[in-house]
Amino acid sequence: MTRRTLAFFVCSPHSRTGVTTAARLLTDYYLSRNVGVEGFDTDFREPLYALFFPEATRIVDISEVKGQISLFDRLLVADETPKIVDVWHRSYERLFTTIAEIGFLEEARRRRVEPIVLFQTDLTDSAANSALVLQTTWPDLAMSVIHNRGASPLGRDSMAVLARYPASGKFVIPRLEAPIAGTLDDVDLSLSRFLREPPPGMSMVARTALEAWLLPIFTQFQSFELRLELQSCEWLR
Amino acid sequence: MAKKPVKTTREAPAKREPESRTRTAEPPAAGSNAAGRPAVIVVGADKGGVGKTTIARAILDFLSLNDIHTRAFDTETPRGTLHRFHPDETMIVDLTEPSDQMKIIDTLNTSRAKVSVIDVRAGGLSPALEALDEIGFFDAVKSGEFRFVLLHVIGPSIASLEEIAEIAPYVTDANYFMVKNHVNDTTFFEWDPQTHAKYFEHVVTSGEITIPKLSELAYEQVELSGTPFSTFIGNQDAQGRPAEHSFVLRGYVRTWLARVADEFERVGLLDLVGEKRR
Hints:
The complex is a heterodimer of chains A (about 240) and B (about 280).
Chain A: E1 5-11, H1 19-32, E2 38-41, H2 48-52, E3 57-59, H3 65-75, E4 83-86, H4 92-102, H5 104-110, E5 113-120, H6 125-137, E6 142-148, H7 158-163, E7 169-173, H8 178-183, H9 191-196, H10 204-232
Parallel strand pairs in A: 1-4, 1-5, 2-3, 2-4, 5-6, 6-7
Chain B: E1 39-44, H1 52-65, E2 70-74, H2 81-85, E3 90-92, H3 98-105, E4 115-119, H4 125-134, H5 137-142, E5 147-154, H6 158-167, E6 175-181, H7 193-200, E7 207-211, H8 216-225, H9 229-233, H10 247-266, H11 269-272
Helix pairs in contact in B: 1-10, 8-10
């Protein structure tokens, strides 16, 4: 029996919440396990996500029907290759409007493609409300939240803020000290390769800190993936 | 045997009071053999490029999806656009030719299809209605022999309102709908109420149908495929073989066709042609 093909929408209706970082981490998680990934960067003006993975991503302008075809027709291909969409905050509304209009979710399920929303949290009420709207519109849509403590800290009341999100799972991306975080800006730094073979010129402090930051994140992704697989096992039901 | 309409001379229509410009769709008259009466749906406009054939295609899809056996006549001679999309059920005719009029009217009672859709070519609506009047079709409608629905596709200009005056004499016994077609992003200005009323004082409409916009790319791909909208949605080519149409475009067409169907249902088109949803 074929496995479901996962299609991740990493998104937030707001800018600078860490969407591209999350999409990058998820992509590198799969690549670190030698699993091929197809990425889509919907920020056609400054496609940072595509810069990190030039050979595995395509840039799509979903304000145009041609861009929507490049994205959604490809997402519906059930080839077991995980698809990751970095949803630019300016594309957020258009993306979900199109999903509704073309009946993407229904068709995806029919083809054994599992759409998963990874919703980036922030302190605003409007972000939580946007997540609620998604859940109300599509109650069966799998949604997890990502709390990026560096890019979008939730403060002391983080638990209360997170409780406003209607998600079935939660990822936490720890804060990285500024000097170390700076190393992530290098588009030539592959986090998946880094784990196998750290760049020779990298300082030991940076390497250790980056490893300590990265491994727990990848462990969360792995747990999530395992949970999805268990949920899809019909013989366990 | 089919009863041939008797040719009569039509008198000028009595002037109607403009107290109400719309009426609700009338159910079949009690006592008549309402359910069995053949229905004729004419889609037309005197202005070109307003999307008559698109509307006719949408109607054929709508009726087909409701399991209503329908035939169509395309008056765009010699090569019909409607015929290109629905070749199996469409015949190309010249409404001004008696032989072709006979093919339509004389077979209304005997045809297996109880609904006939006539797609009138640009500029041909008034002559077509005049021809139908000449052969006594409207008298047969008045006497309850046939049902008649007129979908008048209007453009955004005042010329479209002027058409209304020309066709007014023929729509007294019809279920007459104005169709605003936004499929190609036409924007309709809001007519000044007084101007509007002036043009409608001689005509009673059954309502207004709004055809929503469809993505240009999706529309273009259906055009290229040369298939009914529903066939395109089903990802098949004109020969019924599997096609490779984009899911996005099929999704847009499916949503659009569903909205159009909602409009047809809203105005009770199935009831008007004597067919309930099966």
